[in-house]
Amino acid sequence: MSRIRGRDTKPEMVVRSVAHALGRRFRLQRRDLPGTPDLVFPRSRAVIFVHGCFWHRHSGCRKASTPSTRREFWEEKFARNVVRDAANERKLRAMGWAVLVIWECETRDRERLAEIIGTFLSERDCELCATRGRRGGIEQ
């Protein structure tokens, strides 16, 4: 398990590449936010987590299998991960951040991924403009 990387994973790099291609700028791994989100869009107050299907238990995904040895250990570990993820998401939402979780298996289709990220960030920008009394980013 010591070889499991927590950052700069292939799925994370794909998400970064897509977000950058959309013209969005972001910060990486902000430790001052709960859960240390993978991508942080400060202007939009939005974060993206890139979760591995195995480690974070993507329901219905074939990659979310449980090892056959030491089954109790793994089930406890996975349960803690899921609870921690939910708590971090709740804390971020309470702080006014929008949260998007992208699963590892969703990173294969770049076009669909670009659509998901673009929609998420556009909707968030519209919400912020409405609360600040702006329209289209121009003061009225």
In short:
The protein is of the alpha+beta class and 140 residues long. Helix content is 44%, strand content 15%. Strands 1-2-3-4 form a four-stranded mixed beta sheet, sandwiched between helices. It has a two-stranded antiparallel ribbon with strand order 5-6.
Task: Tell me what you see in this structure.
By secondary structure, the protein is α+β, with helices and mostly antiparallel strands. Helices cover 44% and strands 15% of the residues. The chain has a four-stranded mixed β-sheet, with helices on both faces. Strand 5 (134-135) and strand 6 (138-139) form a beta hairpin. The longest helix has 24 residues, at 71-94. The termini are far apart. The mean pLDDT is 88. One of its GO terms (biological process) is mismatch repair. Keywords: DNA damage, DNA repair, Endonuclease, Hydrolase, Nuclease. This is Very short patch repair endonuclease.
Strands of the widest sheet, in order across it, are 1-2-3-4
Number of domain modules: 1
Question: What is the CATH topology classification name?
Answer: Endonuclease, Chain A
Q: Please, how many helices? A: 4
Order of helices and strands: HEEEHHEHEE
Task: Provide the structure class.
Answer: alpha+beta
